[in-house]
């Protein structure tokens, strides 16, 4: 007894096989009787009927008792054969073809043939640091207040993992501590970090736009390699521009300080 997955389903009457005139028209619009289509597809008429009953192929065009199939049906049958070779069941193929016809689902996902992801080099070289709350308090010598802790969590510098804290970057953690050691309030450091984050995101968007309009036009096999080559160049550009901008700003601040006697007076302790 044939199962629902068995293409050798019982044969039935053949109302669509009577002879009739072959429709005329260009080769690209060729039409086939059922036996001709089965022969072109390399399957039996019985299997073709089974596929039709399972709605794996669209209904044929009918002229009276004659059923005409076309190249779309042939292409569908070849697709079914290829999917069966890859190990898909007829039930899975039916789901895939229904999704394809409806355009409502991701066919690549159903097929399991999503393209391999492009290897993207990590631009960040930061090392996370795990700390206890007590160790963090020692790092910042009384500056680890609830307000500063909340600001660090909001910025994404800190995350809670069980009874420990994880800082996203050893370098940023150490620089923040050095700034506090030099007398800057941690609240001011975090506020500056918030402003800096906004500007750095804008810089990253400039490079992302450049990549989108140039690098992503390359063959996929080259994209990962190109990104790896561009990483030190982008960092070099940002470092050079930041250095020159710092020179300009510091000179301007010192000139303003030198020209304003009030600003030169030492503040009262």
From TrEMBL:
Pfam families: MerR_1. The keyword Ribonucleoprotein does not apply. One of its GO terms (molecular function) is DNA binding. Residues 1-11 have a biased composition (Basic and acidic residues). Residues 12-24 have a biased composition (Pro residues). Signal peptide: none annotated. Residues 31-99 form the HTH merR-type domain. Residues 1-29 are annotated as: Disordered. Keywords: DNA-binding. It comes from the Bacteria. This is MerR family transcriptional regulator.
